Amino acid sequence: MNRKIFLKPVVFVFAVCSFMIGGCNQDDDPIVPSEALSVKYVLPQGNEKYDSLILDFYNENKIFILYEYGAHDPLWNIQSIEGYGIYRIVPPKKENLEAGVNSLFDLWLDLYPGEFFVGRLPHYIYLADSIWSGYSNAANLTTNISITFGNINESLQNMTATTKSTFKKNINSAFWTYIIDNGKFEVPVALDLDYSLATDLIAGYNMGIIHGSTYKLNLQEDFKKTIDYLMSTSQTIINMRFRSYPACKTRVQLFVSEMKRLHDIDLELLTGKVLTD
Q: Record's PROSITE patterns (predicted)?
């Protein structure tokens, strides 16, 4: 059976109280626009194996993964990039979708326990060949209801280790930025520091701030930068940082234990790095 899922379009209607039968009063609740896009989506969007993955994911999470969409849909209520009018989203080519969807699951979605996604994922996940702003190509784009992942293109065919690492880092970093910036994840309080003491790079290392970025740092930004660092830095460099600054090793191990204890997330699996003895 060909199963289809419909998202009903949003219609905004503006009414003047004096013309409404029965009138209205100022105590009525205000009209709040829906977060949903005024678009009707249908799943599955094709008949390939990856469409079954997308459909199963929707049935479990009620989240749309889309590769066919309106040109402006990913720009709805944009957050991460300003001035959406100058941006152009290029949808992925069909020949790259299998590698793109499989990579999305292998390098992101399958690395977290399903329970962690409840209430945290955006309503829409868009797949794009590229996200253009003038001559610049962004890795991702976020709004309060969606994440668009770029680079779903020929680069994912027969990925090198470097390409795979970069793509994995980009999609996971976008996810963590989305859930933290939108109040969908509370960073473990055990990781908090007195960031006013991180007056320079070395002071930060001695406090356990492994990424070394201390300017206007707070717990949320520190968490995002730590995830970025662990995902994008080689095991050799991480080991050197651990040896030079034992506080970094101690604090990263605290990251590992707290994420496992609170959310059953394996940071070593996620980052692909050995972080504990």
A: PROKAR_LIPOPROTEIN (PS51257)
Domain boundaries, the chain: 5-181, 189-271
C-beta neighbour count of 172 within 10 angstroms? 19
Q: What's the pLDDT tens digit per position in 84-119?
A: 456 789 999 999 999 999 999 999 999 999 999 999
For residues 107 and 164, the answer to whether their CB atoms sit within 8 Å is yes
pLDDT in tens, 120-142: 999 999 999 999 887 788 999 98
How far lies 223's CA from each of 24, 64, 123, 157, 217, in Å? Answer: 49, 27, 24, 32, 10
Does this model's pTM top 0.85? My answer is no
What is the SS3 assignment for 140?
A: strand
Q: Which of 258, 257, 263, 259 is CA-nearest to residue 276?
A: 257
Q: Please give the Cα distance from 126 to 138 (Å, whole number).
A: 14
Paired with 50 in beta bridges are none
CA nearest to 62, candidates 43, 84, 76 = 43
Kindly give the interhelix angle for 246-263 and 235-244, rounded to the nearest 10 degrees.
Answer: 120
The one-letter amino acid at 200: D
